[in-house]
Amino acid sequence: MADKFDVIVIGAGPGGYVAAIRAAQLGLKTACVEKWVNKEGKTVHGGTCLNVGCIPSKALLETSHKFVEARDHYNEIGIEVGELAPNVAKMLEFKEKVIAKNVGGISALFKANGVTALEGTGKVISSKQVEVTGHDGEKATYETDNIVIASGSVPVEIPPTPLTDDLIVDSSGALEFAEVPKRLGVIGAGVIGLELGSVWSRLGSEVTMLEAMDTFLPAVDQTIAKETFKLLKKQGLDIKLGARVTGAEVKGTEVVVKYTDAKGEQEITFDKLIVCVGRRPYTQGVLGDDAGVKLDERGFIFVDDQCRTSVPGIYAIGDCVRGLMLAHKASEEGVMVADIIAGHKAEMNYDAIPSVIYTAPEVAWVGMTEEEAKAAGIEVKTGSFPFAANGRALANNAPEGMAKIVADAETDRILGMHIVSQHAGELIAQGVIAMEFGSSAEDLALTCYAHPSTSEAIHEAALAVDGHAIHMANRKKRK
């Protein structure tokens, strides 16, 4: 029997590594198990997010966006540049540097906080034991008082499009293309599909997105979703809604995809195909036969509101449990669980978790959409404001998009905030903070915002809830 710990965390992604650090900070003897091995054969922390997800995709989104800005828009603001061309190899090199800095930072934080890093695959074999199988196949069993499962998720594969090396790929493979594909197909027009499609479209691909659903971004407030659809189509993304893929055939270096839509059976040929139809919880090999941890009907680990599983002393967080599959949601659950284990009272407000799509412009939201509120029987009032009427957005040459606030018609409490704009992912924090403090739309309307700033669009949207917006024509009389 190996060392005993107060806490063992399985998985070092955004949920797991944060849980481990927090637990160690609270004086608990903590270990974190991670099996991820990089291209050099070295165990690395950070999980999907830092290695093949959030961070590397944002590196490519930013570099590709800067390329388009320089090529298409610098001349508009008086900066003349010569002929430009993307250097994909250097972009990928930059992406790898960003990954290395992030994962190296986590390893340093483990050392600084006294977290024991265990290399290999972790398995819960009882409520008090974790078995770790090293990369060499050697097994070691560790005793612990508490276990936190943070095993994450993996991309969903679909039978019509089995993955084929460098031709039919998942989201991870889409970050590794050595050159820009001329014709790129993307199955799924959700968050991941839109981001990856945007990267390669900016660099020169003809991108066609096949989305089975008839509604674009159904989880997003539809005022914002319709505006986003219009802006992305204008950028060149060919988004086909109601297009259900039925098969794919590799012919040499091409992929022929068959799908059905309102017009019947269709066929289209691509040079590369990305499958982005969602993610599923990863629990394979994590739970031993005697673990006693229950899964729900979709394969997620069953937990309560404080991430307790069906077995006392075992918790689960992040993508392998119910709720949004978001890195920041996992991290906050990790903090909550560590605090609970240490004896503190802790909880999360699941109604105030922001979501962001890092296209250009970005799409961000928190709380209820207008459609969700009405479906719940809540009478609402809304206020919106276009960035085309915002001085800073015009000065930034980024006038696209709008901000919208959904408030309870009776109490004026903010139920949701929805934005499509440059830096929407930063601006949405105002909505998160407002909702955490139970703010009313009037609270934001009475707040003094810096001028000029794009944040003023939020201020104007709050004013517009009661028809008091200053910088646009009001449909309601001031009270």
From TrEMBL:
Q: Where in the cell is it found?
A: Cytoplasm
Q: What is its main location?
A: cytoplasm
Reaction it catalyzes: N(6)-[(R)-dihydrolipoyl]-L-lysyl-[protein] + NAD(+) = N(6)-[(R)-lipoyl]-L-lysyl-[protein] + NADH + H(+)
Organism, by scientific name, is: Litchfieldella qijiaojingensis
Q: What is its EC number?
A: 1.8.1.4
**Residue intervals of the FAD/NAD(P)-binding domain:** 5-334
Q: Which residues are in the Pyridine nucleotide-disulphide oxidoreductase dimerisation domain?
A: 353-462
* The encoding gene: lpdG
Write the protein's name.
Answer: Dihydrolipoyl dehydrogenase
Under PANTHER family, the record lists: DIHYDROLIPOYL DEHYDROGENASE, DISULFIDE OXIDOREDUCTASE
Q: Does the keyword Oxidoreductase apply?
A: yes
List required co-factors. FAD
Top-level taxon of origin: Bacteria
Matches recorded under InterPro entries: Class-I_Pyr_Nuc-Dis_Oxidored, FAD/NAD-bd_sf, FAD/NAD-binding_dom, FAD/NAD-linked_Rdtase_dimer_sf, Lipoamide_DH, Pyr_nuc-diS_OxRdtase, Pyr_nucl-diS_OxRdtase_dimer, Pyr_OxRdtase_I_AS
